[in-house]
């Protein structure tokens, strides 16, 4: 019996199929964009100042890239730096003095290749990348870092913002940093669907708040989702959510009436 061997088929890397940007390997991909990357890296290192984040620390901030691309504060279209090639610059503030910037190739309005990205504490450096034409600007650039798409905090709701700020004031300095809240965002749906505890209470202005609490022992963390109840439908709109390692903070949300999970109807957003 004869045997034939077949090479394992490798999926191509598709950046922009319409314009022929389909590559067989990462080596081919980066070779194609080598000139653009070189231009941008040379510019970046000529602009950055001593005292900014050290290059050997950049990987520590790589976790910001996905959120930057999904939910930027600003996007600028630069048609000069790379000649005929349009480039889009994404900017987001993560802390009072921490920004992340990414220069991207877009396919159908979505970043499909990142030429260069970096963290910086230098606002003057960030200003150098605000160039060309602004094509997107967040209407509320002061949105809390804990806001997640689909909750009322993300939409600037006053009730959600007030309760969220109160929660931050109660947190221990040793608790999970607000900057890391997004790393736990996947816990939100799991907590709503399979909460360990559900508590209903009223606030001073007549709102009925319902808190979903779930412990994740493998991660040594609790996750709390705060909602507001619509009495006629008994449904619950998301206000905000957060992770915590502080049992005393969790206890703050254990008050009022303890509900059974089957009594609750959920909505995905406010």
Q: What's the overall average pLDDT, rounded?
A: 89
Q: Gyration radius, to the nearest Å?
A: 23 Å
Number of contiguous helices: 7
Overall spatial form: elongated
Q: What share of residues are in beta strands? A: 25-35%
Helical amount = 10-25%
Biggest sheet strand order reads 12-8-9-10-11-13
Low-confidence stretches: 1-7
Assembly state:
single chain
Order of helices and strands: EEHHHEEEEHEHHEEEEHEE
Number of domains: 2
Q: Sheet with the most strands? A: 6 strands, mixed
Q: Determine the structural class based on helices, strands and strand pairing.
A: alpha+beta
Number of strands: 13
- Distance between the amino and carboxyl termini: 66 Å
């Amino acid at each position: 019996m004869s045997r034939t061997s077949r090479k394992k088929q490798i999926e191509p890397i598709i950046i922009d199929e319409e314009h022929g940007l389909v590559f067989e390997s990462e080596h081919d991909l980066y070779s194609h964009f080598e000139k653009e990357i070189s231009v941008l890296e040379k510019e970046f290192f000529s602009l950055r100042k001593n005292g900014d984040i050290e290059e050997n620390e950049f990987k520590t901030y790589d976790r910001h890239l996905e959120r930057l691309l999904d939910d930027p504060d600003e996007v600028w279209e630069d048609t000069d730096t790379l000649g005929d090639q349009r480039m889009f610059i994404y900017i987001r503030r993560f802390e009072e003095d921490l920004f992340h910037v990414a220069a991207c190739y877009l396919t159908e309005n979505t970043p499909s290749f990142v030429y260069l990205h970096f963290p910086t504490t230098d606002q003057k450096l960030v200003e150098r990348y605000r160039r060309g034409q602004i094509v997107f600007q967040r209407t509320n650039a002061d949105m809390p870092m804990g806001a997640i798409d689909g909750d009322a905090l993300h939409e600037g709701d006053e009730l959600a913002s007030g309760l969220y700020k109160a929660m931050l004031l109660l947190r221990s300095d040793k608790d999970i940093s607000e900057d890391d809240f997004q790393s736990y965002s996947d816990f939100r749906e799991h907590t709503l669907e399979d909460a360990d505890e559900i508590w209903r209470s009223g606030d001073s202005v007549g709102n009925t708040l319902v808190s979903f609490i779930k412990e994740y022992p493998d991660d040594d963390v609790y996750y709390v989702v705060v909602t507001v109840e619509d009495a006629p439908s008994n449904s619950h709109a998301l206000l905000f959510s957060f992770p915590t390692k502080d049992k005393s903070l969790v206890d703050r949300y254990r008050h009022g009436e303890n509900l059974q999970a089957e009594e609750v109807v959920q909505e995905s957003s406010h």
